[in-house]
Predict the 3D structure of the following.
Amino acid sequence: MTDYDIVVIGGGIGGTAIGALLASNQLKTLLVEKNKFIGGRCSTYEKEGFKVDLGVHSFARCQHGPLGEVLNKIGMQNTIDWSIIGSDEARWHLESKLYQFPEDFRKLLPKEDFLGLLKLISETSKIKNTNELDTINVKSWLNQYTTNTLIHSYFYIICGLYFVIPYHAVSTGEFIRCLTTLNKHQSVGYPKGGCISIPSAYADGIRKHGGSVKTGTTVEEIVIENDEVKGVKLDSGEFFTSNIVISNAGIKETVNTLIGRKYFDKSFLKEIDNLKYSVSALTIKIALKKPLSPYKIVVSFTSEDPEKKFKSILKGKVPDEIDYFIPIPSNYHSSMAPEGCQLMTAGTFVPKEIFEKNKEKWIENSMNTLEKVFPGLSNNLLWCDITTPHDIETMWGKEGSVIGISQTTEQAGINRPSISLPIEGLYMVGGDAGGWGIGTELAAQSALECSEIILKKIKEITM
Ligand SMILES: Cc1cc2nc3c(=O)[nH]c(=O)nc-3n(C[C@H](O)[C@H](O)[C@H](O)COP(=O)(O)OP(=O)(O)OC[C@H]3O[C@@H](n4cnc5c(N)ncnc54)[C@H](O)[C@@H]3O)c2cc1C
């Protein structure tokens, strides 16, 4: 007899989801999270009556995608109150004007580029096997339809929002899977109570089905004997036995630190060493005395050759006007801010080392950009909190990545790192293995796939 059937390391979206899915299948489950709070990158804190996400979130497909499917499977459907964005509730800020894209492209583009865009939309909707496009990058694919800089800038921004890497690295197959499913369901939204509501619901699911959730405790080692998982050692000194351990702690961290390289062969270690994380982010949470915008999301961007723009950032240039994704949580749910106030959250993707070299300038140019998008912002500011790439790395590891192992042409779809690791009883879950989708969707989809693999294995053994 082991102490637990399942031990899950890490309480992010992937960890809490797999814990709930397996606990609901009568498996005795323990989840261990090193921070005092669960949720990982998807966590919320409270400050002066505002409920603030540590990251910056809006959610794709909500109850219609994997985030909702996990709740359905654990018998907790309708637990989350989603506010869905309406067709008139988002705006794109470009050169000091607000637009509704893609509709407004008709006004802004030369006819032949607009026709190229329409052709792209029509052909994309007919693609049956997106895997065939997994190894082609979005920039090359887009060039087949148009080279117009505004359209390229728009796709660069969408890729940044979905995958937090530049579009010339993003897998077209992954991009089309995300774009078409999102268009089909038209359901970008945000949960009442902040992003933490999602992992909290999953953690409640673990408890409801008899499992345990331990926070403020770090797993220091995954114990292996004769190439099989035996259990986990915690920083509290406790040792729990289990024949199945699922790590949400990041694939590199799991292999290199929690297990140790000596347990793996050279070719596997080379694959792990070659994996690349998504880029990190600078986020600014802005508490305002009064509402300055009626929209649920504003995206601010500039129209210039996007690959050149990204390369100049890598060389150390801080753009005068910085691209920003700005969800406004209190316009989704008024309870996210005290009455009469507004909460804005703004995020831009920036590599950790690049930000560290020029922190003050990144923050100064960010505040100037946000003032331009929302005139009067500084005069109405109650306070603002900044989360840097370094903060993201300190809180949740994975080199400060926003997503996990990035959805590039080498690492998406058929090339995604496997959920099963080459040690009996050892699995990965979350943004580092399996799955597809946008941010939290990827992590929840990974949990759905992971639960299928494990339940099938258990069934084979017990038959
Ligand atoms: C700034 C920002 C903006 C984002 N915007 C969006 C968005 O708009 N939409 C969207 O869908 N997604 C967005 N995301 C991405 C999304 O939050 C992540 O993709 C998702 O939450 C990752 O889930 P995960 O399962 O991979 O786990 P993670 O969140 O990586 O959690 C892993 C957990 O494991 C714990 N852990 C690590 N090591 C140990 C150990 N040894 N012992 C115990 N516990 C351990 C960590 O503390 C952490 O809680 C954003 C993220 C950030 C940071």
